[in-house]
Amino acid sequence: MKILLAVLAVLALVGGGTLYVLNARQEVQADSVVTAVITPEQLPFRDKSGQVALAPRTDPGGQRTLTGLHCDRFHFAAKTAVCLRVRAGALTPTTDVIVLDEKLHERQRVEIPGTPSRARVSPDGRIVAWTAFVTGDSYATTGFSTRAGLLDLSDGQLVKTIEELPVLKDGRRYFAADVNYWGITFARDNATFYATMASKGSTYLVRGDYPSYRGKVLRDNVECPSLSPDGSHLVFKKKVADGDQPWRLYTLDLATMRETPLAETHSVDDQAAWLDEHTVLYGLGGDVWAVPADGSGAPRQLIAGASSPGV
Amino acid sequence: MYLASTRSPVSGRGGGQVARTVFALGLVSLITDVSSEMVSSVLPLYLVLGLGLSPWQFGFLDGVYSGVTALVRVLGGHLADRFGRLKLVAGVGYALSAVSKLGLLAAGASPVALGAVLAVDRTGKGVRTAPRDALISLSSKPESLGRAFGVHRAMDTAGALLGPLVAMGVLWVAVGRYDAVFVVSFCFAALGVLALVVTVRDHEPGQARPAPRVLLSLLRHKGLRRICACAALLGLVTISDSFLYLLLQRRWELAATYFPLLAMGTSVSYLLLAVPLGRLADRIGRWPVFLGGHLALLAALLLALGPWAGWPVLLLHGAFYAASDGVLMAATSPLLPESQRASGMAVVQTVQAAARSASSVLFGAAWTVWGPEVALAVIAVALAAAVGVTAVLRPVRGQ
């Protein structure tokens, strides 16, 4: 009797597990054919289904068109789109960086280690940049390290990680074994870029020059910078507290180096994007929100069930 | 020295000396490790990609994950001895971990709920370890303890190697469905509990129940105090896996994609060497083999620093585990009376684990301040010195 019960239990567990997996397989939707074209009148974003979706800029919360392209992170600028997608069934976390045109036709693909974090296209679409989380790469056993890289589409030059960027801090070349970068954002000239450098427990805003491949630390406590369309301001997340609400969105006037806290009081963990010179977009709690860039007003929900606003 | 008894008269591969209970517990551990390694191999992906937690929150959860085990381990050992119910307490531990797999499904994206679920899982692991090791030691002959623990650890490691492969297979069939991984992981964990209930025979407590103050009397146990002191000293100078792998990755300029293969290399070596080194420990003494394991770690470090870094580093690293983990338990158990077996083993394991995590923190600081080369040189010298000191102290004699 005991043996019979045990055999039945084994059968139930093995059968139940197998059935669950097979059933889960049926529910996965195949990548449907991508037919959309992204026009300047549209705002692309990542729908909660994991697909890139398009909504009219005039009414972002209105009717959305699903494109059938699945991405974990997405960004778009001037006829170039970048889609970060974690590779299914890889032995170790691996991400495909897929570069597409405005018709969402694939142009190029780069394989990087880790899981997707940030994706950016330079304003004229020439350079794509990304950040991935890499586990097990850091000596700190808890948590992740990050790797930021970029691809110049004009000449195909690939920088897998900008860790080796020579950086000046307080006028001296900065050396440390534990340097990490994340959140690259490019200026219109495709030369100046900004990124977060982390080392020895602090984060810094680095301004880099791509052609000469040099960088300089501008200030500390700046994460995931994002340059405004006219290049005069950065929006970034600043660590303001320990605990479970660590970050607050700020803008930085690059001419005066003055910081302004934005009206969003929730902790935002995203590389924000600029809808226009006055409005900042970011993902929070599974929706895309908008807040004025000058610290006034209040946040409002722009697109429900969305992330990665691609402007 | 009991040469006669280690040479098995039974034909085949000489398995006749290892008790049925040890194989049964090995099977339970194998199945359970498939379950737990399935989850840990996809957990970072699930939390960050599936749930959108930030790595910062992941770090917090990971801290919870590793901090709980040490505390409850002593409790598990104590309860098992106090009530003389080794199998029951171990079973509760296995069951807690099994239930936590379903908890992962229920917790959703709430970091607090996830933290609680992971704490339950770690509690289960902590509670079961000492009574399980006590069962292994009590069902084996004192002269073949090294081999018994070797067999158990080899089976355990086989499960740990299989787990990530099973998880990969599930995600290959059901793309992006982490819930399927957790359900399958639960099924494995439940099979493990079932295997424990059906195949493992509990140890009959022979003597009178121990006094309520088991733990206090253990603290007065001279042999145990000495072995704890030595394990702590060696633990403090033991370089953690992640640092060694980071060093190797830099030396070999290994793409980060292949980084986890390093841990697999160590595991394969551990799997292959656990039984031979356990038998060697039975033959030539457990403390010499335990120290030899630390010398293997030292050799691995020096190789990794020198110009000949290669796969032998991982072989030596696996040898370190094969000669230190089960062998330490084999060295400890004969010192302890039957009625205090689980609590005593729990104390030694906790001391060793605490010393190793302290070492990890200190070494991390040294690495950051002095750079990797200096930090490694310092820990290598300290390791050599600690092996020398504990060789002289030799807390376990006449085994």
Automatic annotation (TrEMBL), chain A:
One Pfam family here: PD40
Top-level taxon: Bacteria
Database matches in Gene3D superfamilies: TolB, C-terminal domain
Protein's UniProt name: WD40-like Beta Propeller Repeat
Organism: Kutzneria viridogrisea
Automatic annotation (TrEMBL), chain B:
Gene3D superfamilies: MFS general substrate transporter like domains (1.20.1250.20)
InterPro entries with a match to the protein in the record: MFS, MFS_dom, MFS_trans_sf
Chain ranges passing through the membrane: 157-175, 181-200, 227-248, 254-275, 287-308, 374-393
Domain of life of the organism encoding this protein: Bacteria
GO molecular function: transmembrane transporter activity
Domain Major facilitator superfamily (MFS) profile: 21-398
Recorded GO CC terms: plasma membrane
Keyword flag Transmembrane: yes
Membrane topology: Multi-pass membrane protein
CDD domains attached to this UniProt entry: MFS_MJ1317_like
This protein's name: Major facilitator superfamily (MFS) profile domain-containing protein
The species this protein was found in: Kutzneria albida DSM 43870
Lineage: Bacteria, Bacillati, Actinomycetota, Actinomycetes, Pseudonocardiales
